[in-house]
Amino acid sequence: MPLGPIPIIVCCKTEQIGAGVIQSLKPEYDVVHFILDAENASREIASVLRGEAPPTPSSSLGSRRYGTSEALQPRAVVFGGACEDGLIETIGEEILLTSRIGGCKSTTGTKVPLLKANQAAAMPPLGPEYGRKIVQRVKACLRRLEEEGRFDGTHGEVYLY
């Protein structure tokens, strides 16, 4: 496990919300890559897991600290509430398929947990309080996954935050 912030990838519908989320996840988590276009997320995620910058990133947000060392390998992918369930599951399958053919191997293994919003949980209306609540839920989920040892490259399931 890295001694510094835990690297993660975030996929969100807008950069305005994404910038706030990225800032609020610090100092515990380093959003190394931010994905704006969920339709191309699997391609961007595969590049980042290989330690490479995606050839055509959908956003310039994120620390862009790419590499193959354990300290730089993303431990999870967090999807915003606007990402559809079916799309997230398809992305997970595409990442796994890419891993099997050798294009998505990383020092931590071939799988990363995928986090998605629990749409059944009570939420405040859109606004500053909404963002704070989402970040609290994401951090709690990431902490739980870390404590349970699910950042070891063998857990590619979808988890609710």
Describe the structure.
By secondary structure, the chain is of the alpha/beta class. The chain has one domain: 3-Layer(aba) Sandwich (Rossmann fold). The chain is 35% helix and 14% strand. It has a five-stranded parallel sheet with strand order 2-1-3-4-5, with helices on both faces. Helix 1 crosses helix 4 and helix 2 crosses helix 3. The longest helix is centred in the last third of the chain and has 20 residues. The two termini are 22 Å apart. 37% of the residues are buried.
Task: Write a brief structural summary.
This protein has 161 residues and is an alpha/beta fold. The protein has a single domain, classed as 3-Layer(aba) Sandwich (Rossmann fold), CATH 3.40.50. The protein contains four helices and five strands; from the N terminus they run E-H-E-H-E-H-E-H-E.
SSE topology sketch:
Elements: E1 6-11, H1 15-25, E2 29-35, H2 41-49, E3 77-79, H3 85-100, E4 114-116, H4 128-147, E5 158-160
Parallel strand pairs: 1-2, 1-3, 3-4, 4-5
Helix pairs in contact: 1-4, 2-3
Throw out a few tags for this protein.
Rossmann fold, five-stranded parallel beta sheet, 5 strands, single chain, 4 helices, globular, 35% helix, 161 residues, alpha/beta
